[in-house]
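Lab notes, practical 5.
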Amino acid sequence: MATAVTEVLELAKKAKMLDLRFTDLPGIWQHFSMPIRELTAEVFEEGVGFDGSSIRGFQEIHESDMILIPDPTTAFIDPIFEEPTLVLICDVYDPITRQPYSRDPRYIAKKAEAYLKQTGIADVSYWGPEAEFFIFDDVRYTSTTNAASYSVDSVEGWWQSSRELGPNLGAQIPPKRGYFPVPPTDTLQDLRTKMVLALEEVGVPIEVHHHEVATAGQAEIDMQFDELLRMADKVMKYKYIIKNVARKHGRTATFMPKPLFEDNGSGMHVHQSLWKGNTNVFFDEAGYAQISDTAKYYIGGLLKHAPALLAIVAPTTNSYRRLVPGFEAPVNLAYSQRNRSAACRIPVYSKSPKAKRIEFRPPDPSANPYLAFAALLMAGLDGIQKRIDPGEPMDKDLYELPPEEMKNIKQVPGSLDAVLAALEDDHEFLLKGDVFTPDVLEAWINYKRDVEADPVRLRPHPYEFFLYYDV
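Output from the prediction step:
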């Protein structure tokens, strides 16, 4: 740690401002800034105070004082700000006890990593999330007592094909036809490249970027895998860079799971593997799709706990506009090699033991990555510890199964209310090792119900006027 602090203080000589960042319970970065002279070695021990009662999911007003302690290994120079600014990601502490704060998402991720080691099952977990997003040219929305509306627009949108654009040059993307077309159909190549270069500049190595399936600017930029906590940090950088690079170029980016009707939503398929020393414990050359029994039990844990997990990994009302049975969405609680119609897929691109992993497909990028990865790990470990059998793999197109076969396959719940209820009923696996604590889960469920689920449920939907105004 001392070496890291020294390196950060040296890096600080290139900056004029210091920006301290942390993540609230729903998963949004918060920050404040100060002149770089305020950064001393003591800050990494003593921390910097802030008002915890003003942060969603944190403290009550009578216990508002909290402190941030920077993690020196997270330092980077922000490529977005005009003035050179050193950014440090922080952990949240209680100023009285000097203990980590139980509702700090980063602390929960750290405890998940520690619990993995305690189990003896593995030393480290690796994570590769694929967070999709949309890049729009315009967004407008309102919700008041007597009005509700939204509108998004993109030059790529299929609805642009008949508009007077002075001139209209065509090449708009039909619904579900956005996967891999070259320019001029793909209008966002250069913008995604700028995002990639900015991400690499802040320490997020990228493997590939491309247009995604939906019309109107859906995109994907894939990060190289990393350990749980570091990957969660990188997801926060990823969202920040993508939103700000889009804004700098007159566009707006959103990680909302389902902003468009009748086209693909944005998921966050999460690749995961466990390693003990130099051995990938998910690999077995003789196993189905070359996965070990350990990996099968891990899948069993994911599938068994999926309804509760979704309250954390697909945690918005909008998530369930994407996770809809009967469409090409990962709603079927089954596993299979290669098969993207199953909730849990085993990629088979490579026969290398190092590449063997499982991919859980229901999550979406509205999730808090610290909580999402920790919850997925805890579910998988519970599966291993209890030897939960996921059953036989389903190597067929689950979207096209006849009704008599389909009725035997469980599906994910269909609403935020339903998954919150599932989390209330099934959360003991999250409490192991004190990784999640009851106060965290209570705060999460109450926030999601009071601020998101109930307000959406109580409001008239614009389409209801189309259906019912003349009854």
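Observations recorded by the TA: The mean pLDDT is 94. The longest helix spans residues 228-248.
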